[in-house]
Amino acid sequence: MKKILSLALAAAMTLSLLAGCGSKDSGSSTSSANSGGASSQTTGTHDPVTINFPTASASGALYAVGAAITNLWDTEIDYVSASSQASAGGIENLTLVSEDEAQVSIAISSNCYQCLNGTDSFEGYAYDDLKVIAGLYFNPNQVVVTEKSGITSLADVAGKHFAVAAAGSSVEGECRNHFTAAGLTYPDDIQAEYIDFTAAADMLANGTIDGAWIMSGAPAAAVSQALSSGCKLLNIDDTIISSLQEQYPWYAPLTIPAGTYPNQDEDIQTSAIKMVMFCRGDLDEETVYQLTKTFWENIDKLGDSQANLKGLTPEEAVKDIADLPLHSGSEKYYTEIGVL
C-alpha cells in the first residue's frame, strides 16, 4: 500500500510540474504577443535567418548606425541572427549584397540606382533584384575651401589643388557630376588630389590644398577641423542643383544651418542624396516585414543612440529614394500603417 501511495504521489507531482511548465510557456507567449515585439509574432513559425550587414569603416558614423540596427533585430526578432561588419562603404556594400555575401546594407540612393541598372561603377554587373527597406537620412555634399584660395563658387575650383577622395569612389563621382554641372571638364580642369577625408582636413589646415569634397552627415569631424582652422563652406547654387536634378533622380537641395560648424555664421545651401537601407530581393517577405516593422517601432530608441537616425519617420522613408523599388515586405508594412 505504501508503495502504491508513493507511486501515486510521484505521478501527481509530475503532472503538476508539467502543468506548471505549460502554464509558463502560455503566459510567456501572451506577454510577448502583447509587447509589440516582432519576435512574439514569429515564434516557432519561421526557419532561422542570418542577416550580414556591411557598413563602412569601423571609425565612421555608418558603422555605429549599422551596429545599432542589427543589435535591435538580433534582440527583437527571435528567428533572426543579425550582425554588422566594417566595409569600404556603399559600393562594396552593394557588391556584397548582389553577390549574396550579405543580405542587408546601406548606401546612398545614387549608388543603389547605379547597381540596380548596371551603370557607372556597376556597368556590366547590374543587380536587378535590389530592393529598398527604407530611405533614411540625407547625406549632404560639403565643399570646404581655404580663405586664401579665393574660391567662391564651384567654377572657381578650376586650376586649384582639390581633394576629390579615392579614385572611383562615390565621393569622386559627386565631384565629377557637380564640377561638370558648373561648366568644368573633370578632372582635367582641376589639380585633383585622391586622398581621404582625414588627410584632406589636415592638408586644408596647413594650406597645402585649396579645397576638398566631403560627403558625410553634418556635422562631420573633418569639416569641423577644417573650419576651425580658417576654412569655409561653399554654397551650391540653385542653377547647379536644378541641372543635376534634370539628369539624376536622386538629388535634393539641403540647408546646413548656421552654427552647425565652428565659425559658420550663415546657412549653407548644398545638394544631398538620401541614404537607403536596402536588401536582397530574395529575402522572404515575412522577414523583411519584421525587419521594417521592428526598425520603425523602435526608431525613437535608435535615434537616442544614433544622431543620424533621430527624427526619422516612415512617411519620409518612401520619398527621395530615386524611384528604387520597395521590397514587398516593406511595402506591406508601409501600406499597413497608411504611408502608402
Secondary structure: elements and pairs:
Elements: H1 2-35, E1 49-54, H2 61-76, E2 80-85, H3 90-98, E3 104-108, H4 109-117, E4 130-146, E5 161-163, H5 170-181, E6 191-193, H6 197-206, E7 211-215, H7 221-228, E8 231-233, H8 238-247, E9 251-256, E10 268-280, H9 285-297, H10 299-305, H11 314-317, H12 328-336
Parallel strand pairs: 1-2, 5-6, 5-7
Antiparallel strand pairs: 3-10, 4-7, 4-8, 4-10, 9-10
Helix pairs in contact: 6-7, 9-12
User: Percent helix among the residues?
Assistant: 40-55%
Main sheet summary? 8 strands, mixed
Mean pLDDT value: 88
The geometry reads as globular
The count of DSSP E runs of length 2 or more, i.e. the number of strands, is 10
The count of helical stretches stands at 12
Overall structural class, as computed from helix and strand content, comes to: alpha/beta
Question: What proportion of the residues form beta strands (DSSP E)?
Answer: 15-25%
Order of helices and strands: HEHEHEHEEHEHEHEHEEHHHH
Low-pLDDT stretches are 1-41
Radius of gyration: 25 Å
Distance between the termini: 73 Å
Would you kindly provide a written description of the structure presented here, covering whatever features stand out?
The chain has 340 residues and is an alpha/beta fold. The protein is 41% helix and 20% strand. The protein has helices at 2-35, 61-76, 90-98, 109-117, 170-181, 197-206, 221-228, 238-247, 285-297, 299-305, 314-317, 328-336; strands spanning 49-54, 80-85, 104-108, 130-146, 161-163, 191-193, 211-215, 231-233, 251-256, 268-280. The strands form 2 sheets. Strands 3, 4, 5, 6, 7, 8, 9 and 10 form an 8-stranded mixed sheet that branches. Strands 1-2 form a two-stranded parallel sheet. It starts with a helix and ends with a helix.
